[in-house]
Amino acid sequence: YQKIPKSSEFYGDAQFAAGSEYWNRFIDRASVDSPDPEELVELLESAYRHLEVAVNRMDSGDETTAEQLSIAKLTLAKIADRLSRPADVLEWIEGGPNPLLEQIQTTASGKRSSNGGVTQSTVLSLLYHAKERTGDAEGAQQALQQLASLPDSLQPDELQRLVLRVAKTELKTTLAKPEVTDADVERLSGLFS
Question: pLDDT digits over 2-13, tens only?
Fold first, then answer.
């Protein structure tokens, strides 16, 4: 990938391959008994850099295959999640010219077979966690509702646990305010219904 010039029509593909290789190395290294945390972060950062270049090329129309674009954006969202960058997770899922959330389409089983294993449930789970981490209780709740509508996505007790977690966080945030408004009460009521 380093030998392919930026002007080459294969540059985006090379960056995608390099990013995918770093991601696979991360997965391999993370599965050993005592992984080196610094090495893991370096692998994640390297994967992120290369995949970001690949996505930028694909989004700009230089090169594009829907499957590669979906896989790259999903991997970038997963990496951002592991690096505790919820704003980046949201950008890959909801932002840009080809948001991942709009790219995925489901079959009756909740999977998109032609998209390299990218499933709506995986994307919505990442979206939920990012919304929760950024304090967007309403967005987290919406992601959970979409997730719950998918076949075989969450067990009812797991869904209930996540809904309560969002509601408790929002309740604590609201109670910490100097003054609770009618709008706050209405928002909280919506979370608990």
Answer: 789 888 888 888
Instruction: Output the CA angle 38-41-46, nearest 5 degrees.
Output: 125
Q: Which helix (H) or strand (E) holds 191?
A: helix 182-192
User: Hunting for tokens 């309403």 — which residue is that?
Assistant: 138
The whole-angstrom separation of Cα 1 and Cα 17 is 8
Looking at residue 129, the DSSP 8-state letter turns out to be H
For the packed helices 156-175 and 120-133, what is the interaxial angle rounded to 10 degrees?
20
CA separation for the pair 193, 190 (Å, rounded) = 5
**What is the C-alpha to C-alpha distance for residues 116 and 25, in angstroms, rounded to an integer?**
19
Q: In the structure, how many helices (H) and strands (E) does the chain have?
A: 9, 0
Q: How confident is the model at residue 83 (pLDDT cuts 50, 70, 90)?
A: very high
Closest by CA position to 94, among listed 49, 146, 164, 53: 146
Cα separation, 169 vs 171, in Å, equals 5
Residues 39 and 80: their CA atoms lie apart, in Å, by 16
Q: Read off the pTM.
A: 0.78
Instruction: State the Cα–Cα distance between residues 177 and 102, nearest whole angstrom.
Output: 36
Handedness of CA 171, 173, 179, 180 (dihedral sign): negative
